[in-house]
């Protein structure tokens, strides 16, 4: 809220230099802001009494948008990539899938490794567990196991996350 939108009876006022001016009526505070050629902006509406500051509103909005953009740049978005295997996968195919997972992990992404069982393969889930653990062992210098191999429906799933560099 700015200027005439502020309808509170009394407010705590902060000056343009950041100094505490005390408690004023909103009308007096608006008058003071007008004399300085600046705007009265409500900073903390939930405080008792609400806190308002005398500032240039356009400049305030510009700096606020700059801070938001800066914080978005610093965010690290982790995406989930999936690698699907089968219980009777050949070693070369497994190495190719490991290379893909290596690329995902070095990019900072989580990797979901799934072994899909079809038909009678479901009776041999131990083979799938062994494949997943070998897969994790092949990537152990780059990744940690976030979630151990576990059956989810017809698939056995394991999650890998990139290791933290210390």
Automatic annotation (TrEMBL):
Domain Translation initiation factor 3 N-terminal: 2-70
Record bears the keyword Electron transport: no
Matching Gene3D superfamilies: Translation initiation factor 3 (IF-3), C-terminal domain, Translation initiation factor 3 (IF-3), N-terminal domain
GO molecular function, one term: ribosome binding
InterPro entries: T_IF-3_C_sf (IPR036788), T_IF-3_N_sf (IPR036787), Translation_initiation_fac3_CS (IPR019813), Translation_initiation_fac_3 (IPR001288), Translation_initiation_fac_3_C (IPR019815), Translation_initiation_fac_3_N (IPR019814)
Domain of life the protein comes from: Bacteria
Major place of residence: cytoplasm
Record's subunit section: Monomer.
Keyword Protein biosynthesis recorded: yes
Function summary: IF-3 binds to the 30S ribosomal subunit and shifts the equilibrium between 70S ribosomes and their 50S and 30S subunits in favor of the free subunits, thus enhancing the availability of 30S subunits on which protein synthesis initiation begins.
Localization of this protein: Cytoplasm
Biological process (GO), any one: ribosome disassembly
Pfam families: IF3_C (PF00707), IF3_N (PF05198)
Keywords: Cytoplasm, Initiation factor, Protein biosynthesis
Protein name according to UniProt: Translation initiation factor IF-3
GO CC terms, sorted: cytosol; membrane
Family membership: Belongs to the IF-3 family.
Organism: Anaerotalea alkaliphila
UniProt domain Translation initiation factor 3 C-terminal: residue ranges: 78-163
């Amino acid at each position: 809220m700015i200027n005439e939108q502020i309808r509170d009876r009394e407010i705590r006022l902060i000056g343009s230099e950041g100094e505490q001016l005390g408690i004023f009526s909103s009308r007096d505070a608006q008058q003071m802001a007008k004399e300085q050629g600046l705007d009265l902006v409500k900073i903390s509406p939930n405080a008792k009494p609400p806190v308002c500051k005398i500032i240039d509103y356009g400049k305030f909005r510009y700096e606020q948008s700059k801070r938001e953009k800066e914080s978005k740049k610093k965010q690290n978005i982790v995406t989930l990539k999936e690698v699907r295997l089968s219980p009777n996968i050949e070693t070369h195919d497994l190495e190719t899938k490991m290379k893909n997972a290596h690329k995902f992990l070095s990019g900072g992404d989580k990797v979901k490794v799934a072994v899909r069982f079809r038909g009678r393969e479901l009776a041999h889930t131990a083979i799938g567990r062994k494949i997943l653990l070998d897969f994790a062992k092949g990537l152990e210098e780059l990744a940690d196991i976030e979630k151990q191999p576990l059956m989810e429906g017809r698939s056995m799933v394991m999650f890998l996350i990139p290791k933290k560099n210390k």
